[in-house]
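Page 47, continued from p. 46.
Same chain as before, 256 aa.
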Amino acid sequence: MRYSNRYPRHLLARVPREPGSVLGQLLLIAVTVLIGGLLAVIVTRHGTPTASETPLAPEATTQPTSSPPTAGTPATAPAPDAPPSGASGSGTPAVGGGNLLANPGFEAGLDGWSPIGGAKLDLAGVSREGSLALSLAAGSGRSPGVSARHATRTEARRSYTATAWIRSNRSGTTAELNLVEYVGDRRLSTDTSGAVLPDTNWQRLDVAHVTHQAGSELAVQVVLPDLARTATVALDSVQLRRGAATETFIPETTAH
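Result:
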């Protein structure tokens, strides 16, 4: 006799289903539908920034530092009458980059210069600079010379320096360069630099002076003591320049 472990068919058909299994299937279907809907929303909104994302600021553009000129406005040009950089701030306006003399090379003839000590003045074609120089010869006096009497008005306690180039047709000629300070017609103070010209080449003389009184005048003089009658002296490239103010030296007054 054989035994079977199977239930009869009529018994299997009558086995009732448990209520909990049906509910679990329904929940599984609902969760699946919900997840599918969320995935669809995410795929649809892919690439769009969410509300919490901060958009990038636009790239800044460089602005010009100054506004362009408006139409019809001409460019500003320097004033045509502006003084050069070497011009003096007081006294006679500086000529030739700081030189206070108006006619230092005698290219304008004898303007601004006058004879002293009976000297005979003329113009010479042999010059150190430019095309002309001053020619000086002995006259009626023992110390002939030439003077730029009204060279510049001064400031008190201010240094001034003069230079001059001199040559003679005779070696051994004595030459002096003077800076003379005047108050009106009175000679207040003088500084002198002298040299004996060793040959017939151009020789440079220099002299410095510290002024006493504001508003006085400086004169530049070249004097040739005991100039020989046969000697002829040429003068060129005379300069007068203003220096710094000083309190370290107070020159003595020599009135004449």
